[in-house]
């Protein structure tokens, strides 16, 4: 009988992580903070035919892939299913149908094995990816979170507690990248294609920075920046002028990224914190990574930056956050349900 109150916490547990919030079906295995395997099966190629993620297609792809991706992860790790000490799974936020596939599999596996089920907030998974880079990493530190749904700067005080220092008042950074990509006629996924185009451009188009001024709160706004790009391109086309897409992409990237990096470093200084981490799909952006590395170095701050493959959706980060919740004894019941939206905190 599954009873979450009866489980004992082990040292260096073997945890299977599962992620299925969007178009990636992923599984990973960790032992303590050591990553043993990470496998991903993506439906992005199929989604690209429609210019973005189609929930029904994503759900079907997860159903077809989840068993296979778990088998691959276990094989790569050299671990049998009987050796798993806990199952960590994304229960939100994301596409509801997609989440239910991973969650149903995880609940069945946890029940069959008689091990704890751990509910993981997808965004907190992104934040936990830094622990996979540096096994000695300990709070406190400042975290820059930038993804398709969230943009925030956080003061991570303990493994389970953090303070939100600032965030976006409208669109998230990743959402803005995708919208600008569509304006420029770029294919899905938009963010990586904006970055590629920007490499051949110059920061020559006057665009508003994403930071909100005239307020004491630390806020970012991407709606106005996105609109400025749309208006710039529309005005050029109305005049019969050619839009230099490379310059637009480069200028947008600077306007979207520079304030994030600047304020992250300032927050670290203000809080007297010596370490900065980052997580979320936008952190895979090469310009952001380079700029953050340069500014942290200038400020004498240690930067713990996950590899690009652990910034985009993956199960290794879910397992990493799962370990934090496991050590805190935060186990879920088998009636856990998926949620399309959940707060960061």
Features:
alpha/beta; Nucleotidyltransferase, domain 5
Q: What count of helical segments does DSSP give?
A: 11
Please tell me what the overall shape is: globular
Q: Give a short account of the largest sheet.
A: 6 strands, mixed
Low-confidence runs: none
How many beta strands in the DSSP annotation?
Answer: 11
Element pattern in H and E: EEEHHEHEHHEEEHHEHHEHEH
- The CATH topology of the largest domain corresponds to Nucleotidyltransferase, domain 5
Strand order of the largest sheet: 9-8-7-6-10-11
Please write the CATH class name of the largest domain.
Answer: Alpha Beta
What is the helical fraction, as a range of percent? Answer: 40-55%
Q: Strand share of the residues?
A: 15-25%
Give me the secondary-structure category: alpha/beta
- Number of individual domains: 2
CATH homologous superfamily descriptor of the largest domain: ATPase, nucleotide binding domain
Mean pLDDT: 94
Termini separation = 31 Å
Radius of gyration in whole Å, from Cα?
21 Å
Would you identify the CATH architecture of the largest domain? 2-Layer Sandwich
